[in-house]
Amino acid sequence: MILMPEVKMPRTIRDEADARDCLARAAASRQKRVDWAREHGIDGRSLYLWSLRLPTVEPPGELRLVELVAKPEPRPRGRYRVHVGALSVEVDDGFDDDVLRRLISVVASC
Predict the structure, then answer these.
(1) Which candidate, 77, 66, 29, 26, places its Cα nearest to that of 48?
(2) Which of 22, 69, 79, 100 is the most buried (most CB within 10 A)?
(3) What whole-number distance in Å separates Cα of residue 95 and Cα of residue 1?
(4) 42: exposed, middle or buried (C-beta count within 10 Å: 0-12, 13-18, 19+)?
(5) What is the pLDDT of residues 10-24, one digit of tens each?
(6) Who contacts 92 (Cβ-Cβ below 8 Å, separation ≥6)?
(7) H-helix or E-strand containing 84?
(8) Which pTM value belongs to this model?
(9) Between β-strands 79-84 and 87-92, what pairing exists: parallel, antiparallel or unpaired?
(10) pLDDT computed for residue 7 by the predictor
């Protein structure tokens, strides 16, 4: 009987999470994927095929999400002067129609 040395077969990638993890670690190592895979007992072909199926995986620390908040530029508010006879009422863009009617009524009654 001839005994052959046991050869450990590289493992295939199990699922998407495993693929993302392996691809990220390979990218972070700065090695060629095939070399990284061989060093870590991963089937290089399996890793390569997963890399084709998934969007690019950036090495940790190089991709950041930044929240952008846009503040609206303050607009100069328009000012308006309403004349009723010799009297006047001044309002800005945010005036309320009902309030203006009451003011004109009060001013007109003076």
Answers:
(1) 26
(2) 22
(3) 101
(4) buried
(5) 888 899 999 999 999
(6) 77, 78, 79, 80
(7) strand 79-84
(8) 0.45
(9) antiparallel
(10) 64
* Residues 37-56: tens digit of each pLDDT: 999 999 998 989 888 888 76
The token duo for 16 is: 């998407």
User: What are the φ and ψ backbone dihedral angles of 60, each rounded to 5 degrees?
Assistant: -60, 145
pLDDT tens digits, 88-106: 778 887 788 888 788 778 7
CA angle 49, 51, 57 (to 5 degrees): 170
Long-range contacts of 56-65 (CB under 8 A, 24+ apart): 57/20, 57/23, 57/24, 57/27, 58/24, 58/27, 59/24, 59/27, 59/28, 60/24, 60/28
How many other C-beta atoms are found inside a 10 Å radius of the C-beta of residue 46? Answer: 18
